[in-house]
Description:
The protein is built from 11 helices and 19 strands.
Amino acid sequence: MLAGAPNTGKSVLAYLLTQHLRQSGISHYLLRAAPDGEGDWFYRGTAETVRRLRLSHKFPYNPRFIQQCQAAIENRWLPLLVDVGGAPQGEQISILRACSHAILLHRNDEEHTHWLKLLAELGLPLIADLRSSLSESERIEQVHPILQGVISGLERDETRRKTGMVFGALLDRVAGICRYDPAYLTNEHLRHAPLPPLTVEQLASRCELKQPSQWQPGDVQRALVCTPPGEALAWYGRSPAWLTAALAIHSLPAAFAVFDLRYGWVITPPLTTRRRPTIEIEPRLDKDGVTWWLLSLPEGLLEPDAVYLPRRENRGPLVLSGRLPLWAFAALARHLAPRTPWLAIDDPGLGQAIIVSGGSSPSTPRPGDSLSRAILPA
């Protein structure tokens, strides 16, 4: 768990740790256990784009969100980095209690004393106790048994963000806790697959990609050519939402499953409409006549057995934009693709919307084509 008061740099540190762990091939998952609307895209997209998206996906804590986070930690399928809120109280403490270790960031003695007391009450051992500063030079004051010192460079602005020796020492410690045999973890997960499994690495190898973790929109067509159409598929691994959605559509009418950290394997559920939907839709029409559906979750979470849409008709091209689980994007794509000339998934990090179905005529864009996100209305 990354612990500390608000604005100490916990979320930036979580993002940096998960990026470096991925580069080292260490299987893990970053669980954002605070409903602040952030995701990896928050640290990659333009400032205005991520500000607007974060506000539309931010929501207050509620009992269901807390219970889901606690269950995800207690029943974890992978080692977790847990980014918690800066002022936990009441039922939120159950999220902290479910964790195994803590990294503490603080800016002053008052914050330090408060969090040390809380962590001691929870019985959570510290692996690092660091003062976070934007102005001081970083330094290591103690290595064992707890890493102590000053860490700097935890800036949201990518041009000012940097890592140094303190981050390196912390990364080594976190990696040591999270490092399991990747083959063992993968085999355990695939052993439970409800459909014939396909991993991101396997598909990348088929497509002769050198870096399977860095899919580009132009790779979508190759991915579809390398995957038999209309066959049941259990998709495993970290991938962009638009690649997952394209494969989900490609497998129609057969079943499609996605591995999810919180639920394990999720077979994409059928979607129905209700007066009280679990996915809200705000339609916007851009200057080219393309409809954008801005998606949000009224309760801040979504469960596979309760996916309901509002009653909305759309017969033209459609772009889906929002922060949803991969299995939800897959379910939406399978539901909507047969009803639209073409369908796209918005990627704020790339600043583009990627086509995931289409190409039925020469004038229709094909999967893997993209359109600029700049045309999204404010």
